[in-house]
Amino acid sequence: MSTPTLRDVAGLLAKKEMTATEHVRATLHALDGLLDTPWANLVAARDDAAALEAAARADAEMADGNWIGPLHGIAVAVKDNIDVAGMPPRCGSAVLADVPPAESDARIVARLREAGAIIVAKTHLHEFAYGPTGAVNASGPAAHPVDPALITGGSSSGSAALVARGVVPLALGTDTGCSTRTPAALCGVVGFKPSFDALPTGGVFPLSTTFDHVGLLAADVLDVSLAWGAIPGVAHVRTPVAGLRVGRLRGENWDVADAAIAAAVDAACQALADAGAEVIDVELPETPQLLAAYPIITGSEAYETHRGWFESVPELYQPPTAALLAAQKDRPAVEYLHALRTVERLRRQALSRLRGSLGLNALITATTPLRAVTQEQALSADPAVARTPLLRMCSPFNALGIPAISAPVTIDVGAPVGVQLIGLPTTAGGHGSHPAESTALACALTVG
Predict the structure, then answer these.
(1) Does the active-site annotation cover 179?
(2) Identical fold at 6-230 and 245-290+326-447?
(3) Of the candidates 59, 135, 327, 335, which lies 20 to 30 Å from 413 by C-alpha distance?
(4) Which residues of the chain fall short of a pLDDT of 50?
């Protein structure tokens, strides 16, 4: 699984030491190599002809001296709840087994194409992005890139695993509660969720419009940073770590029992301190209320999207997804509205304290309190086995709408461990800003 990084390929393309067609053909060959393996269903759809046509156009552009930037000619995989023109968005569900190909690209896909990227595949996801394990999909569970008996995490399961397998240098995911960061942590890659609305969600099948984000996955932080800065409309500036004030989250939700995960966070904090940051222990007292409001909002919005299908063809949903939707059927609207108001109040309150009175620039914590569990454990009806712990350290930052990135930190020879860096906006008002992304990326570059 040792393959060139995004920056390696971008450099070769820019120097004309490799053509986009050669790169795309190699990627398609790698996708072919997954057939008849435990990783075959990581790929939900392909359009090889369209990819090769796009590669030929990129080669012609670069031959004329029109190199757009570091994504020009780069093969990218896209999660199958994000529209790609010409490919059907089945969202990992039998409900959409016969859905026609998308007529147009999602807005984020259009931006990537504007930057010169080439879409080579759609990827496996936890059904309708409604789960953190990657074990629930009409085609079966996604296999961990190293050990197929383990989960990838989700819901951006295929995107994380394809990057970890070295098949693609960059992939798109979505992140409503943990869905870019959790699979990145479990698969040993980097997952980046920018601020709410920093990347457009138009053309993305919704789970919860209040919390839905688009995210990026790549092999390391440098590659994610390179890709982020190359997307049209993004304002990315390098931020020095020296002088930053970073809060290490402490408390019941944030302290972990796994010694390797705790050691990874310790090591990351030390790396930040060595780079000149001030690292202090802080609490986030809003956490219990944020965690309580999150499933109410997500579930209510998901049920509204799925109501028609769920009432007419409930048998087409995978049982875990059907159970989640059924639990929302009779939820009073007033409960949903109260949860929305609670989250907005807590967001203002938390950001005002963290950025204002505490003067923090960033936060740090583990991405998950556990490492990859088995496929069997992931399908347990008890949410405490996988679903709850895989969401609990990530979803508060979807509720706060601020950028968060999971970077792998190696402590022992066991499964990968992810450390999460969270950027805080320069003001308490509004949903994040690009300087907050730059801060999160700078901290992640230091620890990852």
Answers:
(1) yes
(2) yes
(3) 135
(4) 1, 428-433
